[in-house]
Write a structure and sequence with these properties.
mainly beta; 31 strands; 620 residues; 16-stranded antiparallel beta barrel
């Protein structure tokens, strides 16, 4: 028993002695002493031992008026014990008899934001005054359907926000293909095998239709848990966005029967955009882990005049720039990302851990599926890393991004069927480094993909300048690709867990170089209407060996260019609802005018494409 408790019992024993005589045979005094001792033991917990330290203060609102009935919780950080006190009519609270140690105070009252005071240390016998000023909670501007539809309020509850978009329109293409329900990223570019003009439903022109949930919950002053989950949906079919599946749908068909087939990082995953969690600090930055957009994708969305919209942006539709050479790599699985902002300067770093299967590889021609030495099991070496440095000065902002990705996989076309050209480079027979397997396939081609593997590096610089009512954008990226240092084999996995039944690790005769430029301007008319003009160009070098590109020996490894120009108007009827109309024109030459398969004398059916589009978008 501590000294204060002993003193209290002694006083009580003295009072009992003079006011309550003991009856013969009754142990009154020992019972009373025991009762008082137990009561004091229960009333005064050991964690709050009476050492004389105290905390007190006044709680007020933002105008300085006293706040009664505020729950003030005092937490002993050394023992995790808490004591809650309700402020009186003058907003005062007082907590005597505290032990020495470290404390945190939290004030809570309905209609007000919670307030926390940390970093409080008390010595034995010390008293401290901590006044607290509370702020009224901001009114919920999304309290009605009308406010939700007409304002840009966020659907946030307890730090968790629901967000999304629905973007759909109609369009016409001069040389297009039937729409594939598994993925749609516009038909603005010249599309391989495209040969007919057609009207079509054209969703996702300014933004990928989809839904997501993000959250931020503070657990200590300046520190918070953060997370984000989001996915893309094709509004015309209700299917999750799945670019590789568009190739599988066309497997075995003659080219004249193809629907639109593309490649991409959205591969039918439940969360095909992002799925990550982490920790954020106002001082030390944010660290997250999971499936995340690459640093190049972040920069593209920021510095593309179209904001990555599929209907009017080559770098949004194609994804080569965003992925540092491969649209598959615009999102990285098993990736750690760090972001830090210091004044006008910001920094980013990202690392992807190797994941998935490397399949089975053989460099020998005429290998077979049978026998223990048919091929060597491979381990995936698809790690990646990147860095971003940027800043803002007044109305000018700029970023520089470097990315490197090992064993990048490019899924270029469906597996070819018996009605393809008589001598295709690719076939339904398994291939490793173009060495055909002898006999039965190692893997059933049904439901599989054919991939070309490279090691990619890229440097990008981009800038934006605001001169109201104009915004100007410009950027450049230099990409170099080589055959992989570590090969992948048949059975390797691609985005979304798809299996590769055919793999090429030596597709490049020599180093392939890509250069991408873009520039554009956005004009805002009376705050509600944006008019955007954008230009994009991609060039590739002649990486064929020998470097002879005559009409008789012309291949996709020859030098070539792609140009796209787009213009569109976007009118905002409300903060959430807008309508747009525009047109994109694209043209290809040289090696970029070679269709799949990569064989001689197989050009695009048409080198140009015109694609006007009109649509609406609702974002929340």
């Amino acid at each position: 028993m501590n000294r204060i408790d002993s003193h209290a019992v002694a006083i009580f024993r003295t009072r009992v002695k003079f006011t309550q005589p003991q009856a013969q045979g009754e142990p009154v005094r020992p019972l009373l002493i025991t009762f008082v001792a137990v009561s004091l033991f229960l009333v005064v917990p050991q964690g709050w031992a009476q050492t004389g330290a105290s905390l007190s203060g006044v709680v007020t609102n933002q105008t300085g008026a006293a706040l009664p009935n505020v729950a003030v919780t005092i937490k002993n950080l050394d023992t995790a014990e808490t004591r809650t006190i309700i402020t009186d009519g003058g907003g005062r609270y007082q907590a005597p008899g505290l032990p020495e140690g470290r404390f945190e105070i939290r004030a809570a009252k309905q209609g007000f934001e919670d307030e926390t005071r940390a970093g409080i240390s008390l010595a034995v016998g010390q008293g401290a005054t901590v006044d607290i000023r509370m702020q009224l909670k901001a009114p919920d501007v999304c309290a009605s359907g009308r406010e939700f539809a007409t304002t840009d309020c966020t659907l946030t509850w307890h730090g968790v926000t629901l967000y999304g978009a629905y973007d759909v329109g109609v369009g016409w293409v001069s040389h297009g293909l039937p729409v594939n329900g598994y993925n749609y990223e516009g038909e603005s570019l010249v599309n391989r095998n495209g040969f007919q003009s057609r009207f079509l439903v054209a969703p996702n022109n300014l933004q990928q239709t989809g839904i997501g949930i993000r959250g931020k919950e503070e657990f200590a002053p300046g520190w918070a848990i953060v997370f984000n989950t989001s996915t893309g949906i094709n509004p015309q079919s209700g299917l999750l966005a799945d670019a590789p599946k568009t190739n599988i749908v066309n497997n075995g068909l003659p080219r004249a029967s193809y629907s639109m087939a593309i490649d991409g990082a959205r591969a039918g995953q439940p969360f095909n955009d992002e799925f990550y969690g982490g920790i954020a600090s106002t001082r030390f930055g944010t660290l997250t882990f999971g499936r995340q957009r690459s640093l190049g994708t972040d920069a593209m969305l920021l510095y593309d005049p179209v904001g990555g919209g599929y209907g009017f942006s080559f770098i949004g539709y194609n994804g080569t720039m965003a992925g540092g050479g491969d649209t598959d790599d615009s999102r990285w699985d098993d990736a750690m990302k760090y972001r830090l902002t210091f004044g006008p300067v910001h920094f980013g770093a990202m690392y992807k851990f190797a994941n998935g299967s490397g399949g089975c590889f053989s460099a020998e021609p005429g290998w077979t599926a049978a026998g223990p030495t048919a091929c060597t099991p491979e381990r995936a070496h698809n790690n990646a890393y990147g860095f971003d440095v940027g800043g803002e000065h007044g109305k000018f902002s700029a970023d520089a991004v470097f990315q490197h990705y090992n064993q990048a996989i490019s899924v270029l076309n469906p597996l070819l069927g018996p009605q393809s050209l008589s001598a295709p480079t690719q076939s339904t027979i398994n291939s490793i480094n173009t060495n055909q397997i002898q006999g039965a396939n190692l893997i059933d081609p049904n439901g599989t993909l054919y991939g070309i593997v490279t090691d990619n590096s890229a440097i990008m610089v981009a800038a934006k300048y605001v001169w109201d009512p104009f915004k100007f954008y410009a950027g450049y990226e230099y990409i170099w690709q080589n055959n992989p240092k570590q090969p992948l084999g048949v059975g390797a996995t691609d985005q979304g867990g798809y299996i590769l039944s055919g793999v090429e690790d030596n597709n490049l005769d020599s180093e392939k170089l890509l250069q991408i430029w873009w520039a554009g301007a956005k004009y805002t008319y009376r705050t509600k209407t944006d008019v955007t003009l954008a230009w994009y160009q991609q060039r590739q070098n002649d990486f064929r060996v020998p470097q002879t590109c005559t009409p008789a020996s012309f291949r996709s490894s020859c030098a070539g260019t792609l140009n796209e120009v787009s213009v569109y108007a976007d009118h905002h009827f409300t903060k959430r609802f807008d309508g747009y109309v525009g047109v994109a024109y694209s043209v290809v030459t040289g090696g970029l005018a070679i269709a799949i398969p990569h064989g001689p004398g197989v050009p695009y059916l048409f080198p140009t494409n015109v694609a006007p589009t009109i649509g609406v978008r609702f974002a929340f």
